[in-house]
Design brief:
about 300 residues, alpha/beta, Rossmann fold, 9 helices, NAD(P)-bd_dom_sf, oxidoreductase, oxidoreductase activity, SDR family NAD(P)-dependent oxidoreductase, SDR_fam
């Protein structure tokens, strides 16, 4: 077994600017705390600004707050404009915020809540901020997915918003599969620029507030098993932190816990589902996402980067 990667392996982040969504609690908080602890200037992009300010005070260092509600494209645009006006550059964009297993609901724009928040909100935010990253050598977009991308997961182009029927687990799986497909297609488009990379990560089984909407049939057995099968948020954040800061990490890589079944453990490169590497579906999802959000990215695939992003 190789050296176990921990927060101690994070290089000096002084002079770097990081934006972390959903950073007032759980994995996002631990990600922001670790980056700030290494000297980064960190923006907590959060729905509740008061909770964000309290989190910033606990973290200390050069940490500020930006209000961001990923369930509203108006809020995403307002937040992106505010960040563009105050930041000259972004080195790290950590697309961490998310919802899981929610009852059937829609965002303010009428999107199914999990797909709209986990994928479309982050897709729009990334597209609106990317030109602050492209001039910055070593900049990275890291999007947090989940092992749930394998569970009953597909991109249901015939019913993306689950209007005909709704299954909360399958809808979550679609949103997390979309996170990966977005990452791989974004990396294909970034490859020609050579400055910015797109990577993904997942936390394994981590004990956070995200699981509060777990279906009742699963809640009791999971409560009994939680101490055995989960790891604390600080450990769950390590794959994201490694994807964001490890000098050896490559665009298109996916990081997760290195233990059995990727449930917990120290981070290492992992492989996502075969479906996630389907380049034709990635491109179709990208086109649909641009249409739904009205956000067009300042990067297009070059002829030399047209091949699929493959497991690395």
């Amino acid at each position: 077994m190789g050296v176990q990667w921990t927060n101690d392996n994070i290089p000096d982040q002084r002079g770097r600017v990081a934006v972390v969504t959903g950073a007032n609690t759980g994995l996002g908080y631990e990600t922001a705390r670790a980056l700030a602890g290494r000297g980064a200037s960190v923006v907590l992009a959060v729905r509740d600004a008061d909770k964000g300010r309290r989190a910033a005070a606990r973290i200390g260092g050069d940490v500020s707050v930006q209000e961001l509600d990923l369930t509203s494209l108006d809020s995403v645009r307002t937040a992106a404009a505010a960040l563009r006006s105050r930041l000259g550059r972004i080195d790290l964009l950590i697309n961490n915020a998310g919802v899981m297993y929610t009852p059937k609901q829609t965002t303010r724009d009428g999107f199914e809540l999990q797909f709209g928040t986990n994928h479309l909100g982050h897709f729009a935010l990334t597209g609106l901020l990317l030109d602050l990253m492209l001039p910055v050598p070593g900049s990275r977009v890291v999007t947090v997915s989940s092992t749930g991308h394998r569970i009953r997961a597909a991109i249901h182009f015939d019913d993306l918003q689950w209007e005909r029927s709704y299954g909360r687990v399958a809808a979550y799986g679609q949103s997390k599969l979309a996170n990966l497909m977005f990452t791989y297609e974004l990396q294909r488009r970034l490859a020609a620029h050579g400055t910015t990379a797109a990577l993904a990560a997942h936390p394994g089984m981590s004990s956070t507030e995200l699981a509060r909407n777990t279906p009742a049939a699963l809640r009791y057995p999971l409560t009994l098993l939680t101490p055995l099968i989960t790891q604390p948020p600080a450990m769950g954040a390590l794959p994201t932190l490694r994807a964001a800061t490890d000098p050896a990490a490559l665009g298109g890589q996916y990081y997760g816990p290195g233990g059995r079944n990727e449930i917990k453990g120290h981070p290492r490169p992992v492989v996502s589902s075969p479906e996630s590497y389907d380049a034709s579906v990635q491109r179709r999802l990208w086109a649909v996402s641009e249409d739904l959000t009205g956000v067009t990215f300042p990067v297009v695939p070059s002829a030399s980067s047209a091949a699929s992003v493959l497991p690395v």
